[in-house]
């Protein structure tokens, strides 16, 4: 049974009893909520994920979900034949399903138009995929609340989605945004290295150096800040600006802190167990795996602090690195003891190897930040895009409809 402790400035919605509310009862409530507040789901997907075990199970679970008005799937890295296959793959879903073929000529034409205006994402990846999906949701006007989760969740069941969307679906709640959290424990070990060994120790190091800044207290209130599962009211999409790199999750949290009071934000326990595909450490490659992820996430945090008036220099980043390193090593000992008391395996060498890499990458991220003061990694808000290209939503909807009609037969 989960605890009821409220930590930090964000409301935590626990799973206090697994028996008192069944998935059928929760889905019945959500179906009633959807009559007042229509609900959508966004699924950013690589084509390769259609060939793995996770997405097939996700789709099978979603066929039983009665309350979704719309499912928007962003499909990346797909040829024409693969897009045709994707349409068949998702055709078993009974909801109103739209599949955005991001590599198709119609959507690439819209992307080129936005590129000419300086409004399109500059980097390929999940951030770009999510951004276009959210633009489609906004333009379609089919929902008032939307959830988003990854397509590689090996332990998925439909209760995860129900708990994730419930806080922004319930008309009696006042939450604009909800972040999912869960214990990253699978195969007899503790996972989630970037969150455990980078984000939390880095936030604690920054608080030690700069004091208890509101932003740092805010981020440190999230139990799993890098979770790819979140939900929000649809009007949130209008003016949110997100990074296109691995800083997506931190960027979304930062935008919510900028735009809303913390009493309109929450986090919810969505799963007892959670596992998905794991990134390699990529010690010798700053452009891949957890190495790139750690650099992008660190830069996202540093940029946000700079907008709050924090001044950095090279010596500051050396102090951050040193402080982080000591705190992170203490966390390794903490997690080792937690693993032992729970009968889990724990590899101290690999944990400390990750800490060493992250420490180096914090300094790399800091130096990059100082050397590129004019860097603008954020994708423009949809408010700005629709102001510059008033018919952009209509163009997107038409492109998706024509793609699905042409290639879905």
Automatic annotation (TrEMBL):
Entry keywords, A to Z: Transferase
Keyword Transferase: yes
Source species, domain of life: Bacteria
GO MF terms, alphabetically ordered: transferase activity
Protein name: Glycosyltransferase family protein
Organism name: Catenovulum agarivorans DS-2
């Amino acid at each position: 049974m989960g605890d009821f402790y409220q930590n930090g400035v964000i409301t935590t919605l626990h799973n206090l009893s697994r028996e008192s509310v069944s998935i059928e009862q929760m889905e019945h409530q959500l179906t009633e909520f959807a009559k007042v507040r229509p609900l959508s789901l966004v699924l950013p997907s690589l084509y390769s994920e259609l060939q793995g075990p996770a997405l097939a199970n996700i789709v099978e679970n979603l066929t039983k979900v009665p309350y979704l008005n719309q499912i928007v799937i962003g499909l990346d890295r797909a040829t024409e034949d693969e897009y045709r296959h994707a349409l068949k793959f998702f055709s078993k879903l009974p909801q109103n399903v739209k599949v955005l073929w991001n590599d198709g000529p119609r959507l690439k034409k819209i992307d080129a138009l936005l590129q000419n205006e300086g409004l399109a994402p500059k980097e390929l990846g999940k951030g770009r995929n999510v951004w276009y999906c959210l633009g489609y949701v906004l333009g379609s006007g089919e929902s008032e609340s939307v959830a988003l989760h990854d397509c590689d969740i090996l332990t998925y069941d439909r209760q995860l989605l129900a708990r994730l969307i419930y806080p922004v679906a319930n008309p009696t709640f006042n939450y604009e945004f909800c972040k999912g959290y869960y214990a990253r424990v699978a195969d007899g070990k503790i996972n989630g290295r970037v969150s455990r060994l980078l984000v939390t120790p880095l936030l604690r190091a920054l608080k030690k150096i700069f004091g208890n800044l509101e932003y740092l207290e805010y981020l440190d209130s999230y139990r799993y800040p890098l979770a790819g599962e979140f939900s929000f009211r649809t009007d949130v999409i209008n003016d949110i600006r997100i990074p296109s790199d691995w800083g997506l999750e931190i960027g979304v949290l930062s935008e919510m802190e900028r735009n809303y009071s913390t009493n309109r934000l929450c986090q919810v326990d969505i799963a007892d167990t959670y596992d998905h595909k794991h990134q390699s450490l990529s010690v010798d490659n700053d452009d891949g795996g957890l190495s790139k992820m750690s650099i992008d996430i660190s830069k996202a945090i540093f940029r946000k602090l700079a907008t709050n008036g924090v001044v950095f220099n090279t010596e500051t980043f050396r102090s951050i690195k040193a402080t982080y390193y000591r705190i992170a090593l203490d966390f390794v000992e903490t997690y080792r003891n937690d693993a032992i008391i729970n009968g889990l395996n724990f590899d101290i060498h690999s944990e400390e190897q990750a800490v060493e890499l992250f420490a180096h990458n914090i300094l790399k991220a800091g130096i990059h930040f100082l050397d590129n003061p004019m860097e603008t990694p954020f994708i423009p808000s949809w408010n700005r895009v629709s102001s510059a290209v008033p018919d952009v939503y209509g163009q997107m909807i038409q492109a998706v409809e024509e793609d699905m009609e042409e290639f879905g037969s």
